[in-house]
Structures
1.
Amino acid sequence: MKFIDEYRQPALIQRNLAELRQAITQRWVIMDVCGGQTHSLLRHGLEAALEDVLELVHGPGCPVCVTPAEAIDAAAELARRPNVIVASFGDMLRVPGQRGSLLQARAEGAKIRIVYSPMDAVELAASQPDQQIVFFGVGFETTVPATALALLHARQRRLTNFSLLVSHVRVEPAMRAVMQSAETRVQGFLAAGHVCTVTGYEHYHSFVAKFSVPVVVTGFEPLDLINGLFECVQSLEKGQPRLSNQYERSVSPTGNLRAQRLMEQVYEIVDAPWRGFGRIAGGGLAIRPEFREFDARVRFQLADAVCSPDGDCRSKEVMLGVIKPPECPLFGNRCTPETPVGAPMVSSEGACSAYYRYSRSNEVTS
Amino acid sequence: MCLGVPGRVAVWIDQDPLMALAEIDFGGLRKRCQMACVPEARVGDYVLVHAGVAITIIDEVAAEKLLATLADLGEMNPQEASFL
């Protein structure tokens, strides 16, 4: 497929990997903050190919993973009520709350539908006027315009049986939390490319200035990732932390202003609980009071999500880049993708899950 | 989660600012996608689609520029590359 295959050419990957290795004089610690990038780095064998020269750590960049368990329990509880159908993205269904996953709830009779887009849930509401349709929306800024648009469509179409249960999170506050942690070892960041498609990257100037770390807006294909790492390494080697954009085909400095307007029209910035991480200042979005009739928490009188720790799992240290997943005593025995204990194991894009699936492979693949 | 899939705008269906809709061709598979964030997209443009919503128009010139850079870099000898 165009804009994918070109960035997976094996010969180019090998040559650029070799160039990257040549540019490195010390084992820098670089964090990616998007689960998609984590997944791609491990799936394509890039982390293994660079392991001896670079330390790649994977931040709290999987919104499915950091959705509070209580929000999942609330969605399951709603789906058990009469005349309520909960719709959500497929990858949200396997994630366990404190009382099981949505998939388990569905097996027990709860009414849960998988949709590809929040707009499909709006259509469901239009076609089933006697049912309350709740879209359980999670995601970073990439996904926020889609749920905002769904809400505005529902309002335009005067659908009184559509509402949103949202657990939207914001990337930059999580990166700040990483840098403000006393334990942090992170020396450079790959910024999440698709989040920046929406938000742009100019707001990272103050981040780079404050923390003196390079931030490189990076895409998701193997060549994009190698190129992003190359830029980050060069910045570190020169001792000149800078902000740069290596995903120019999709990201402009100011991002998509229309998408930002949709986001700001419907949501306001709030402090939010991140599973496995705790509360992050400015780390989430809540539906503005003027749209409260579309807020499932208001409509169904649900309590605000809190964030309980997941037992003795060390996911916070994993997400801060302090330890690698295999260093957690639960990894691979009590905690596996089938029976996850902590946030980064619950979805295929979480760092622990990606390690579990791919860390045995050392081959670079396209 | 933040997966974005590139597709080509095949035909516009609705150009209302809020309800904007177009059919997008993903390598032969066509799907209707929301276009409210990219109303300036023209038929033939590539857009990046996430969760049914086109979130940006892909800049083909920038894409080619990067590929050319990556191809050049791969051909340089290591000493040259280290001075970049």
2.
Amino acid sequence: MLKPKPKLIVLSIDGVPIDLLKRLMQEGVMPNLAELASHVGIRSMHSVHPTVSCVAWAGYSTGMNPGKHGIYGFIDRQPNSYNLMLPNSSNLAAENIWQILSRAGMRVFGLNVPSTYPPKEVNGILIGGFLAPSLEKVAYPSQESDYLSSIDYRIDSDAQLARRNKRAMLEDLDITLARRMEAMFHYLQKDNWNFFHTHIMGTDRINHFLWQKMEQGDPEFYHGFRDYYARIDRAVGKLLEQLDDNTPLMIFSDHGFCALKQEVQLSRYLVQTGWTIPAETIKHPLSIEPSKSRAYCLIPGRIYINLQGREPGGIVPLEEYQQTREQLTNDLLKLQDPDTGSQVIRKVIPREDIYWPSTSHGPLDLPPAQVATHDGTFGRAADLIAIPFDGYDLKLGLAGKTIFQKTQLEGMHTYHDAFVIARHVDLPTDNLEIMMLTQAILKKLAVEPPVDMDGIGKAVTPVF
Amino acid sequence: MDRLDELENQSIYIIREAYYHYKKLAILWSVGKDSTTLVWLCRKAFLGNVPIPLLHIDTSYKFPQMYKFRDEYSKKWNLQLIIARNEQALSSGMKSDRKLECCNALKTEGLKQAITQHGFEALLLGIRRDEHGIRAKERYFSPRDEEFQWNYQDQPPELWDQYKNQAQEKTHIRVHPLLHWTEKDIWYYIKRENIPVTELYFAKNGKRYRSIGCVPCCAPIDSQAGTIDEIIQELETTTTSERAGRAQDKEDTYTMQKLRALGYM
């Protein structure tokens, strides 16, 4: 008799912090997850720096730190210019987990996982998510768009709507989730999958736009917020019913969340402190005057030295790289909340302390000149990564008038408190971070990981 | 009967059906190769005298070669040409620095205005199933609602040559006589019939346009194909999509809008 191939199911839920989840489980909002967690436990997990979904999911997809996979944020610089680019999966410098498993002959499925658009060719079906522009382009193989159209599948909820009308946002989130779950159950039955991963994005959105209303027990939105999580729990219940109790399963988030006190227009602060001189007309976040700017930043908290020989109009000599980074760090740490006087930036991390290049498995002890001029994906990292205190969300705002502002956003991402619930999957016991899940999945499916992959027992991102 | 005759016959049948059913009918002519082929088929269907007006939605940003072509052939073929422009949007300075909005205002809104102004019940369009995965679900007679939305889930059945051609008030029907053609079919037919198309499709200095529209939003492809035969040969081996040169800009604009709404821009 043939031995059945191993199977692993993943359901990821974007931006859900472990404390919120525990509370909702205790209060009976998420009974199915609570039941599962009572058997297999629940753990917290570290995310990535900077803590945004595209970087976290690129880390999960590749099992590597950003220095290797090359995705550092939603926007980046085009090489050798001050032009903006919008990275997507085609900029990922390594194979993703669906490709790795496909090579090993596994049948794979992915639905809505960030950083998978445009979808790569796999042995199965890969349907991109957030930022995929249309159903006709979202799926590999492309014929899947016919099924998705037939159920009126929505790739993503509408964040513009969220800024205008929160009631309409909730309705939109519900429909998006319902169609997503319909697609998930449809595909679950369709094949004998070895690896099946579905992602829910709406929790990140509801947390961004309703976090404080939830915390304050807002009469209009408190229940809407909890209902949304309850709906997810019902889908989890249905999923558990369809799987037998021995099926390896992971449910996890990519980062946590906290209340947002202030949005910090960091580009504006760099302008005020004289580091960045904006161009005469500001068209985008990199519209700077290179001949006068010593540094500039991209969202969130990614600060670049305008280095001679590396940047097309660089003015900071290589010998001054380290000293410039130190001065800049001092200035960044001085930034204070005008209302409370409290410090905004908790830590400024040099790139080599949290990123490392291909063929290494952990931070390298490199002299500053080598750090500054390193090639490859590592060399495209920001020179400094500013980590804010919880509550201060680092934004751009090159053209902004003020450094601090408050908009419709009520919640922001946190690094230290993602969650994992894992059944029959062995995870590292210490220092768990999202990029370590990949090796654990490969191990469970008995597939040899690529040699450059980070993860268990080797590469650990230092905690600051 | 060869394949091109078969394609032609079916298209002419649909064009005549549409003309029979709708009093207020127009042909949407973008001046590209597909809609020009459609115009050619209409000329054949009505023996050289097209009794249906041609509607050109003019964004003012089309290639100069396209305007020249439009004016030359509408005269030569004795066509009733209606040129519609969303003047209000144009005078407010709408241009391609905001691509999605620009397309919406100048194309979609411009078309809506023209439909209302002339009371068109139905439009003939040169779209083809092979342009996009999503167009695989299109029908030859395809209703649009008041908001121009196309409801995938409520598609009338089309069996053999039975078409649902009645629509409710405030909606209009889009008729797609070329739905079953492929990009290559179009070029084979253009070659056989010697249909004129603008010079933009033919390679100059190693570049040609595979799909044309507004100047700021179209990119040429690398190509040495200077003749129809060379284009057909190129299409035999290409692995990129026909509209690839037109999509990227809009895709970036879409991504930026999305990121802005989420506070990432």
3.
Amino acid sequence: MTTHKFDAKERARWRGACLVVTGIAALLLLGVWATADARTLAPANARARTPVAAHAANVDCTTLTNPVYFPATTLLETLLSKVAPVLADPARGADQMTIVYFPLSSCLTYDIHKDQTDLTGTATYYLPDGTQMSCDMPVGTSIKSDLSAMDVGGVTCLGGQTPPADLKEYPSHVETLGFVVPRNSSQTAITATEAYYILKFGGESGRQVEPWTDPQFVMVRNPGSSTQLTIGANTGIPGTMWNSNLHGHQGSGDVRDDVIAQNTTGNAEKVLGILNSSKWEAATNDMKVLAFQPFNNCFGAVFPDSTATSRDKRNVRDGHYPIWTNLRYIVRVDGSDNVVTANGATAATRVQRFIDLMTGVASIPALNVSQFVIDTGNIPTCAMHVQREIDGGTVTSFSHPAPCDCYFLEQNGVSSGCTTCTDDASCSGAEKCRNNYCEPR
Amino acid sequence: MTIKRIVKNTVLAASLTLLFATCGDDDGQSTIDASNIVDANGFVCDPVGANAEMGMLLNAPVDSDVEVIVKTPQHPGNPGPNNLP
């Protein structure tokens, strides 16, 4: 790869200018988010706090074995469908737990956990055989969340304010986001500027982008959605300021379903949606992701993967495709940084164990989280070569201390060219044997 | 409408040649001035943007097997991110 090297003076000049511009942009952006979130999240919050009568067919969530009450982004749904059954299995012994999942928009899950709002309504959990079930929170109890998960940082949800000291964020895997169209659409690409016009003006006369001119066929989420916030940050129009005529949805599954529903209505060409890769990769017969040309890219649009049909996330991993975000687990901690939860010390121990397993700090043979992350269309950080510290912010080069590129590619069905191994002695030079492949270090 | 093709050998090469020519070398004698780089559609394109490193990553040469789509923009006006309405 050809690179241009900057001397110290140049670096300082660019970095200084960049920090000023980024800082101003961030302040403006977050100031707007603060106002808009307070306005737009109110109805959703109100809905979440309204007790829902228990359905006779559902079990009481509090009767499940070792429940972990977990409001989390809808983007986590697919991964949890793999992880939760393993943890629910009695064979896990001391690690057995039932993930009681409340699928919601990112910032709403953050607010619920931060404010320790009573959990109400119906949640999702999984049986050890993978069957998805529903349970009801009993009316009249005051069960609080044990942790939450979202795809943006707390500072974003708080409109730029510093998160409370008792909330700790654990960054995790990378989720790829993008624009999707029904499989029957002929469209293959969208530019950042086109997206800006569509999302800001919503098909307004004189500011239209063919063929996405009817806002009712532009399937978006809501201002608390990390998908919308992240895509907004990459298209110049904050997710809290998108045109109100666009077709909003509560969850990513709702967007997926609406996009697919238009496949055979004759309107496929008009449809544009925003989604995460785990959703579109599970529905490739019915929809496809568009190549995206970011601002300041001067050669053309690229897919998250190297081609429209590959599964290597090459352009995400090397910095050509910038629409991605890190998942964050959010827990409450005491002054000594120990996890705490309103549901008691035993529950806190379970939460810490869950976090450790999901972030790779701990592992058990039955639960290969990296494999599940890859299987669900996501990227473990060990396969990334770029990073960002601010939501939707600048992408910079990154070198993971224990890379897993070979494993990532092979698990996606892509030949890595790497040597298989059983230990470091099987590899050459500085290579390390990791996940049965000789990785560069 | 969209024109799907691999462009590494044409537009990308031209853009990057201009980019790196204007970026100067490691002696620090040159400064980055990419304001006159013109993309395939005749628009002025700034491959550096607000952050040099991100600009370099976005415009780094892609492997020959990477699919690149050059699209005729369907939006009014010039491309962003500067001076968007």
